[in-house]
Design a protein that fits this description.
It contains 30 helices and five strands. By secondary structure, the chain is mainly α. Among the domains are: about 110 residues; about 130 residues, no CATH class; about 140 residues, Alpha Horseshoe (Serine Threonine Protein Phosphatase 5, Tetratricopeptide repeat), CATH 1.25.40.10. The protein has a five-stranded mixed β-sheet, with helices on one face. Helix 7 crosses helix 8, helix 14 packs antiparallel against helix 15 and helix 24 packs parallel to helix 26. It is elongated, with a radius of gyration of 54 Å.
Length: about 675
C-alpha cells in the first residue's frame, strides 16, 4: 500500500503541474518543463504504465507547444501590426491637430463675418423701420420731370429743366408765404433725390423702394406737368394728388410768367395759407382777400389773422380788427395776435385802447430763441409807437439779426429800415444813415421804402432842414396811399409831415394835413403846438388837454405840452409835464433831456447835468444832448467834463446853429 501510493505520487504531481499549466495558460514562469520531465522519468522508471501516460502527456505537450507557437506567432504579427498602426495613428493625430489648428484660424474670420452679417441684418431691419417711419411722416411736395415738346429739347429745355424752373418758383413763393419757415412743407424734386442702389436680378433700386413706401404710406403731394404747343401759344398744365389740374396759357416768350402763375396756382390748391401769405408779402391785397374770403366762415386761429392782413391791405381796418380779435379768441395763446389787434386799433386812432390791449403782452415773458426774439422785436415795435422806446426796438432788432444771421418775411424787408426809424428817434444821425445804406442793399419792398423815407425825414428835421424833411414826409405819404400795410411802420406820417410843413413856413399845408389826419395823439399835439406857435395860448392849452384825454397813458402829448410851456417860460409847469411824459415813456430820451433844459433855465445846473446823464442812456449819440450837457458842466465850473461833452457833440450830427455854438466852445476851451 505504501509502495503503490509512493509510485503514483510523481505522476499525480506531474498531472497537477500540467493542470496548473493549462489553468494559467502557456506562461513559462508558471510550469517548469525540466522539472516535469524529471518527474516523469522518475515515475516511468518505476512503473511502465506511467511511461505510457508520460508518452501521452508528452504528445499533448508537443501539441500544446505547437499551438502556443502558433498563438505566439499570431501575437507577434499582431504586435508588429500594432506597431505599424502606432505610426499611422501618430500621423493621423498630427493631421487632426493640424486640421483643428486650421479650423480655429478659419473660425475667427467666420465669427467676424457672422457678427458682421448679424449687424448688417439688424441695420437693414432698422433701415427698413426708419424708411417706413419716414414714409408715414412724409408730407413733401414732390415735383416730377415735366413732359415738353420736341422743340424744347432742341433749346436745352428738357422736362427736368422746365420742372426745375417750376420748382424754383414754387420754393420762392413758399418761402415768402410761410408763416413759420421751419414748419413749412418741404418741396423736393423727384429726379435729383434718386438713390440708385440696384438690387441684383430685380432692377429695383433703393430709390424705387423709398418711392413705393412714400406713395403707399406717406402724405406727399406729387406734382407733374406738361407743356403743349398750340400754334404760337403755350399751354402749361400742372396736376397732382390733391392738386386739381391747373392750366395756364400764353405766348411762347412768356414761359417764365406761365411757370410763376402755375406755381402760384399749384401752391394755392395744396397750401392756400402759404399762397395767402405770399400775396400779402407782395401787396396783392385784392387777390389775398379773394382767396381768404372762402375761409372766413370756418376761419381758424391761423387763417383769421391772414384774412385780417388782407383786409388791412384793402384799408378795411375795422373788419381787420374783428378778424384779429377772432384769431386771438380761437388761439390757445391768448396774447399771440395782440400785436395785430393793437396795430389795427392804433391805425384807427384808438391809441389808448391799443396800449391797454398791448399791455397784456409782457416783454419779460419772451425768451432768447430766434422766434422769441422776433416776437420781442415785434413787441418793441409797437411799444416804440406807443411809448417811444426806440432804444428797446434797436437792441431787439440787433439781437434778432445777430442770432439768425438773416431775417424772414416782413423782418427781411423791415429790419434795416425799421432800425433806421428807431435810430432817428434816438437822434442818432450816423446810425440812421448806416441803417438806410444797409436797407438799400437789401430787397426794398414798399413797406421798406416807406420806413426809409420816414427815417430820412426825421433825420433832416434833426439837422434843422425842415423843407427837406417835409419833402421826404410827402414822399412817404405818397407811398402810404399805394401801400395800405403802412400800419406796420411808426408813426402816423401825416402828423410828422404837418409839423415839418409848419416849421418850413407852410402853415396852410400843415392845417390841411391835420384836418384829415384822424384822431392820432401826435396830430392832436401838433394842432396844439401850432396854436401856441401862433400866439393862441388859450386854444393851445385846450388842445393840449384834448390830446392828453385821447390817450392819457401815452407820453407824447405830455412831452409836447411841456415844450410849449417851457417856450412860454412856465418852467415849473413844463417840468411837471416832462415828469408825466417820463413816467409813461421811461425809455424815451426826449422828455428827460427837455427836463434837463428846463432845470438849466432855472439855474439848477447840477440837477440838469443829472438829467442829461439819464437821457444819454436812451440816446447816446444825440449831438444836442451832449452840447447842453457840456453847457451845464461849464456853468458848474467843471471845464474838463464840459470839454469832453463839447468834443463828443462835435463828432455828432448837429443843426447849423448848434454846430457853430459847439465850435465856439471848443475853440474857447483850447485857448
Amino acid at each position: 500500500m505504501t509502495e503503490k501510493s509512493s509510485s503514483t505520487e510523481p505522476l499525480e504531481a506531474a498531472a497537477s503541474a500540467v493542470d496548473l499549466q493549462e489553468g494559467f495558460g502557456t506562461s513559462a514562469a508558471s510550469v517548469d518543463p525540466v522539472g516535469v520531465a524529471s518527474l516523469a522519468l522518475d515515475a516511468s522508471a518505476a512503473d511502465p504504465a506511467v511511461a505510457r501516460e508520460l508518452g501521452g502527456f508528452l504528445h499533448e505537450q508537443r501539441e500544446l507547444a505547437s499551438r502556443q507557437r502558433i498563438v505566439a506567432d499570431k501575437q507577434s504579427r499582431l504586435l508588429d501590426h500594432r506597431l505599424e498602426r502606432v505610426g499611422l495613428e501618430k500621423e493621423q493625430i498630427e493631421a487632426q491637430n493640424h486640421h483643428l489648428h486650421l479650423q480655429h484660424i478659419h473660425d475667427k474670420p467666420r465669427l467676424v463675418l457672422d457678427v458682421g452679417l448679424a449687424c448688417f441684418g439688424v441695420a437693414l431691419a432698422l433701415l427698413l423701420v426708419s424708411a417706413v417711419w419716414a414714409a408715414t411722416r412724409s408730407k413733401s411736395v414732390v415735383v416730377e420731370a415735366f413732359t415738353v415738346p420736341p422743340s424744347f429739347d432742341a433749346q436745352g429745355l428738357s422736362g427736368a429743366v422746365v420742372a426745375g424752373q417750376f420748382l424754383d418758383r414754387l420754393q420762392e413763393i413758399q418761402a415768402r408765404g410761410a408763416l413759420n419757415p421751419t414748419a413749412s412743407t418741404p418741396i423736393e424734386d423727384a429726379w435729383t433725390r434718386e438713390i440708385r442702389v440696384e438690387v441684383p436680378e430685380t432692377g429695383i433700386s433703393l430709390g424705387d423702394v423709398q418711392k413705393f413706401l412714400r406713395a403707399w404710406l406717406g402724405h406727399d403731394v406729387r406734382i407733374s406737368g406738361a407743356v403743349v404747343e398750340s400754334g404760337d401759344a403755350l399751354v402749361l398744365t400742372v396736376r397732382g394728388n390733391g392738386v386739381p389740374a391747373q392750366r395756364v396759357a400764353g405766348k411762347a416768350s412768356e414761359l417764365d410768367t406761365l411757370i410763376v402763375s402755375a406755381a402760384e396756382r399749384a401752391l394755392g390748391a395744396a397750401r392756400p395759407l402759404e399762397l395767402l401769405g405770399y400775396l400779402e408779402s407782395t401787396s396783392r391785397h385784392a387777390e389775398a382777400a379773394a382767396l381768404a374770403g372762402p375761409m372766413l366762415a370756418s376761419a381758424t386761429a391761423t387763417e383769421a389773422p391772414l384774412w385780417g392782413n388782407a383786409l388791412t391791405g384793402l384799408d378795411r381796418f375795422p373788419e381787420a380788427l374783428d378778424m384779429y380779435r377772432e384769431a386771438n379768441r380761437l388761439s390757445s395763446d391768448h396774447t399771440r395776435y395782440k400785436m395785430n389787434e393793437t396795430l389795427a386799433l392804433e391805425r384807427l386812432g384808438r391809441e389808448e385802447e391799443a396800449y391797454q390791449t398791448f399791455s397784456a403782452i409782457k416783454d419779460s415773458t419772451f425768451g432768447n430763441s430766434a422766434e422769441e426774439l422776433r416776437r420781442k422785436a415785434g413787441f418793441a415795435t409797437g411799444m416804440m409807437e406807443l411809448r417811444r422806446g426806440a432804444i428797446d426796438l434797436h437792441e431787439n432788432l440787433q439781437a434778432y439779426a445777430r442770432m439768425t444771421g438773416s431775417t424772414h418775411l416782413l423782418f427781411e424787408m423791415l429790419i434795416a429800415s425799421q432800425d433806421a426809424i428807431a435810430l432817428a428817434s434816438m437822434h442818432d444821425a450816423a446810425g440812421t444813415e448806416r441803417a438806410l445804406e444797409q436797407a438799400a442793399r437789401g430787397a426794398m419792398g414798399p413797406v421798406d421804402r416807406l420806413a426809409a423815407q420816414q427815417a430820412r425825414s426825421a433825420l433832416a428835421h434833426e439837422l434843422g432842414h425842415d423843407s427837406e424833411a417835409f419833402a421826404d414826409a410827402q414822399s412817404a405819404l405818397s407811398l402810404e396811399e399805394r401801400t395800405p400795410e403802412w400800419m406796420l411802420v411808426f408813426p402816423p406820417t401825416a402828423c410828422l409831415a404837418a409839423r415839418y410843413a409848419e416849421a418850413a413856413g407852410l402853415a396852410s399845408v400843415a392845417e390841411a394835413m391835420l384836418a384829415k389826419a384822424g384822431t392820432f395823439v401826435d396830430c392832436a399835439s401838433a394842432k396844439a403846438e401850432f396854436a401856441a406857435h401862433r400866439g393862441a395860448w388859450e386854444d393851445a392849452q385846450r388842445d393840449f388837454a384834448a390830446a392828453v384825454d385821447l390817450a392819457p397813458s401815452l407820453p407824447m402829448a405830455y412831452e409836447s405840452w411841456g415844450e410849449a410851456l417851457a417856450a412860454h417860460s412856465e418852467l415849473s409847469s413844463a417840468i411837471e409835464k416832462y415828469r408825466a411824459a417820463h413816467e409813461r415813456g421811461p425809455h424815451w430820451a426826449d422828455p428827460v433831456e427837455r427836463w434837463g433844459e428846463a432845470l438849466a433855465a432855472q439855474g439848477q445846473f447840477q440837477a440838469a447835468a443829472q438829467k442829461y446823464a439819464e437821457a444819454v442812456t436812451y440816446a447816446p449819440n444825440w449831438g444836442a444832448l451832449h452840447l447842453h450837457w457840456g453847457e451845464a458842466f461849464a456853468k458848474l465850473g467843471d471845464h474838463t467834463r464840459a470839454s469832453e461833452q463839447f468834443r463828443a457833440a462835435q463828432g455828432l450830427a448837429l443843426s447849423d446853429s448848434d454846430r457853430q455854438m459847439v465850435a465856439h466852445y471848443v475853440a474857447t476851451a483850447s485857448r
